[in-house]
Amino acid sequence: MEGKTASEAQKIEEMEEEKILETESLKNEKNEEEEQQNPENEKKEEEIEEQSSPRGVLEIPISGSDSDHSSRSSSLERSSSFGSEKSLFQRGLSGELGYGLQWKNLFGQIKKRTSMRRFTTIPLLGGYDLSKKSLRGKLGRNRSSEDTIDCGDSLVPKPSWRNFSYQELKEATDNFSPDKLLGKGGHAEVYKGCLSDGQVVAVKKITKKEKNDEDRVGDFLSELGIIAHIDHQNAARLIGFSAENDLHLVLQFSPHGSLATVLHGSEVSLEWKIRYKVAIGVAEGLQYLHCDCQRRIIHRDITASNILLSEDYEAQISDFGLAKWLPEKWVHHVVSPIEGTFGYMAPEYFMHGIVHEKTDVFAFGVLLLELITGRRAVDSCRQSLVMWAKPLLEKNIVKELAGSSIRKQIRC
């Protein structure tokens, strides 16, 4: 009799538990419906995102962010995942992580220049895998000696860059002397500089005179946001930045200059083993950008001029002015206007503006042809290197691709 009573009591208890769960489920469904019907919730979430990540603001220097074209809903998910805790970015601004003052100074300088209305948002880091195990693995693959900041459940790489004053950069470059000019393009000028501590750097001065000030600042923040998150030996390293008077990026100096200069501007032919090392370095750099970053980066302008060479001829991918974030579930971007370097642009990009990893892979193929043949991507007669090499490749006459000096070295 007692056993029967105990059994009945257990059944009643189970039924009560089921009712409680069912009630909770109905409450959750009702709350979700109310949130969807109430536009004020959506507005509040947008305000949270704005406060935590101002337009164009960098978060923390880890390997990744999202695309400016990411879905709005995924951004809100990241925002809400922080709950009531302060975001890492907010902790940084408050000085807890030791680098917030740099961003405050940067945005103070930028606000003096423009209204900051239309800058690209680099979303919050709440949805990223910031576990210590994950970040230790990523840091170990790249720069194992990089210092980190312990943020409880998260391990954040300690930033090595800083906000320079305009006066510091003037002194470093002898007032941007023409004698210090390393290179000049349509969007920027690069000067050799020496900081007060003796460190030799490359100072990139953003020009883009054809654009208005707001667009220039937006492009500057976009490039800064990407390069500050990159941490790999085969990519240019950020030393610092400045938005005082003009827009500047301070980068690691590369003693041998660009691959284009060494390949095409020197009387001495580059040894095959160095060419091979450069090819491997660029491939590993692209592998990092496309696969090992928290968010994929498409460079869009892989050229011999944008591959810098360190003292020991380690290839470093540089100039992220055209780079794009590619969200995880996206197959490609469609961009406009189409920008890049003629001779390196993939057909689907050149004709339709389609951008994905293969855009960079195509350009890397052109770079390989340059390394093997010693020819430019586009010769003086405007002939494309790809079109010149295609018949030889189709007939499998690979030997004819190599320049005479290379044929001697590799005995083909």
From TrEMBL:
State where ATP binds: K205
Q: Name one GO molecular function term.
A: protein serine/threonine kinase activity
Q: Which UniProt keywords apply?
A: ATP-binding, Cytoplasm, Kinase, Nucleotide-binding, Phosphoprotein, Serine/threonine-protein kinase, Transferase
Compositional bias annotation for Basic and acidic residues: 1-30
The chain positions of domain Protein kinase read 176-412
Domain of life of the source? Eukaryota
* Secretion signal span: none
Which InterPro entries does the record associate with it? Kinase-like_dom_sf, Prot_kinase_dom, Protein_kinase_ATP_BS, RBK1/2/STUNTED, Ser-Thr/Tyr_kinase_cat_dom, Tyr_kinase_AS
Record's SUPFAM superfamilies? Protein kinase-like (PK-like)
- Coiled-coil region(s) at which residues? none
Query: Pfam families given for it?
Result: PK_Tyr_Ser-Thr (PF07714)
Its quaternary structure? Interacts with ARAC5 and ARAC10.
PANTHER family in the cross-refs: OS08G0249100 PROTEIN, PROTEIN KINASE SUPERFAMILY PROTEIN
Indicate what this protein is called per its UniProt record: non-specific serine/threonine protein kinase
Q: Which organism is it from?
A: Abeliophyllum distichum
